[in-house]
Structure formats: structure tokens, C-alpha cells
Fold:
Amino acid sequence: EAAETVQAWRAFASAAHALRDAVGIEGEKCAEPGCKTCQPTQFQFVPKGVVMPPPPPKDEPTPEERRNAQAFAKKATCAAGLGLGGLLLKRGRRGEACDALATALKADEACGEAWTLRAAAFAEMGEDGSILEIVELHLRKAAQLSPDDDELQAQHAVAACRAAVLGTAVEPVSSGGTLAERARRASTLLDDGAALMREGLYKTAHSRYLSAVALLDGLPGPRAKAAADEARLNAAGCLLQLPGDHDVASLCDALPSTRALLRRAAARERSGDYAAALADLREARL
Structure:
């Protein structure tokens, strides 16, 4: 908390996850010493007439100590995700903030602050009304979990969010600015697309990826080209999740990768062009 750097919070998050992996999740196992399911007996061949020495004593924690360690690991994981998500949101990295806050909510669904911060992160992406539903869901969940917020406050928060999201005009992504500024805008759009895609908002994620492609295509260097190709693949993946036929082939035609062939094959199979889909699958296997 004193460092206030993304690197420090990421280190804390890694340590918390390692601790949770080590002690397990509360309720994952019964923790009974004689349970053969959670603690199966290891088979060991012993020749006839040979007496094996007794195994060394194990310094195993008591069930209460294990429960305390699991509770601490859960609290640390939630705190790490909450702190990292809040700092990333302050830095304008809203897509990464959504992922970090999702980790906090996975550890503790009753963390109202994580729901509130995640609503704010999605609201900052709100250039159209498609994000409103998920922002509203997060705000209502936060209001339910916060004893200081009554239903009236929740309604006011949702109404304010609705007005802010729906009242924001959709502006085209500017291609101006320095190379560094355009690269930062493209990175933000890529993070937004990833976060929206994970939430199932495929249409909005698709538009973010295409906006990122428009910026990345104007940047020099192999890294920008690789990022643009990846964005096209993700945009194609979004279209495959939407009902109906979409122009997936135009996004995949120029991409020399197996993933592009597989996604184009899926689109062609959906449209009934089975011969072309089979040809793509055969090429992907080579």
C-alpha cells in the first residue's frame, strides 16, 4: 500500500496466489486424517522378509491451523486483487483493472468495493449503451452488499450510470498524436476488448478490436504488426460468437496462422461452405 506501484501490487498478488495454492481453498477437502479419497495411501512394494523403517513424522498443521491459513489466503487474495485493480483504474488501465477485480471477487464474492470499482471500470468504457447492463448489475450487487447503501441510493447510482453511458456520444478513434500516444490508445482498446469479450459483450468487444487495428496499422515495427494481427483474430473470434453470418474471412485471409485458418473454417462451416471449410482444416493440419 505504501509503494503505490503496479509492480508492488502484482508481487503481492503473486504471493497471495502462491499461498492460496499451497494451503488450498476452504471446503475443498474434508481434511480428515483417515480419509482415503482426499489423502490416498501410496502403494509401495516391500519384498518378503524385509522390514521397512517407519516413515518420518510429518509436521502437518492441525485442521484449525489449516482453516486459519485458508481464511488468511482468501483475505490476502481479495485484498491484492482489490488494491491492484484500484491502482490500475487510477492509471487509466481499465481492462486490466477489470481482470484484477475479477480475481478479488473470485476470492470473495461479498466484497462490495470490488463490485463498485469494477462497475466504474466498465463505465469508463461506455461509449455506447451495450455496456450499461453489466455496469448496472455491478452497481446493484454492490448496493446489496453495502449496509450503508439503501435501495434508494442504489437506484440513484444506476440512474446516474445510465445517463452517463447513454449520454456519451460515440466518437471515432483519433489517428492523430505521437506514435507513443497512438500506441497507448491502442493498448487501452485491446485491454477493453479483452475485458468485454470475457463478459460476453462480443459486439462491443469487436468494435474495440477494430479500433485498435486502425491505430496499430499506422504504427511501424513488427510488434505493432503482431498486435494488429492478434486484434484481428480476436475480432474474428467475437464475430463467431454472434448469431448470423459475418465477414470473418476478411479478418483472417491475410493472417498466416493456424488459428486464423481454424476461425475461417468455422465461419465457412456456419455459412454452409463445407468444401472451403474442409480445405482450411486440411491446411491448418500441415
